[in-house]
């Protein structure tokens, strides 16, 4: 992804809307999260890596995947009416902040100080 073309195209299948497809543009990375749940004896019950991107639907019909019962296009002002988990609400606001920051640009990272000895 170049700085002049911050969006790449992808096609996402919608499992619960008859196998239809949505045409989407995947944009800025919002966050990467680990979710690990352990059994009482310490065994891993499951481990998910969640990668959240800002996406824009460019064609097709809004529909949910197999992990949800409903999909909706909602204004930010109406989000509290949906009783979202705090982490979901925070992620949506992080995505909105990411959008407001503008296109992704590489940043200068200073070289670490190295002891010449």
Question: What's the helix and strand layout?
Answer:
Elements lengths: L7 E6 L7 E18 L5 E16 L26 H15 L17
Question: Would you mind describing this structure in some detail?
Answer:
With 117 residues, this protein is mostly beta strands. It has one domain (8-100). It is 13% helix and 34% strand. A three-stranded antiparallel sheet has the order 1-2-3. Strand 2 and strand 3 form a beta hairpin. It is extended and about 60 Å long. It starts with 7 loop residues before the first strand and ends in a 17-residue tail after the last helix.
Please summarize the sheet with the most strands: 3 strands, antiparallel
Q: Tell me the fraction of residues in β-strands, as a range.
A: 25-35%
The succession of helices and strands, N to C, reads EEEH
User: What's the total count of β strands?
Assistant: 3
Total domain units: 1
Strand order of the largest sheet: 1-2-3
Mean pLDDT: 76
Q: How much helix is in the residues?
A: 10-25%
Broad shape: extended
How many helical stretches? 1
| Alpha-carbon Rg, integer | 19 Å
Structural category is mainly beta
List low-pLDDT spans: 1-19
Distance between the termini: 40 Å
Features:
34% strand, 1 helix, extended, mainly beta, three-stranded antiparallel sheet
Q: What can be said about this structure in brief?
A:
The protein is mainly beta and 117 residues long. It is built from one helix and three strands, in the order βββα. A hairpin with a 5-residue loop joins strand 2 and strand 3.
């Amino acid at each position: 992804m170049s700085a002049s073309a911050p969006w790449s195209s992808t096609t996402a299948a919608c499992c619960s809307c008859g196998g239809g497809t949505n045409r989407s543009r995947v944009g800025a990375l919002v966050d990467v999260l680990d979710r690990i749940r352990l059994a009482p004896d310490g065994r891993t019950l499951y481990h998910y890596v969640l990668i959240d991107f800002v996406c824009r639907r460019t064609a097709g019909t809004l529909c949910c995947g197999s992990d949800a019962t409903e999909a909706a296009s909602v204004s930010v002002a109406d989000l509290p009416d949906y009783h979202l988990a705090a982490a979901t609400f925070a992620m949506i606001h992080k995505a909105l902040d990411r959008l407001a920051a503008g296109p992704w640009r590489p940043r200068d990272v200073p070289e670490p100080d190295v002891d010449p000895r």
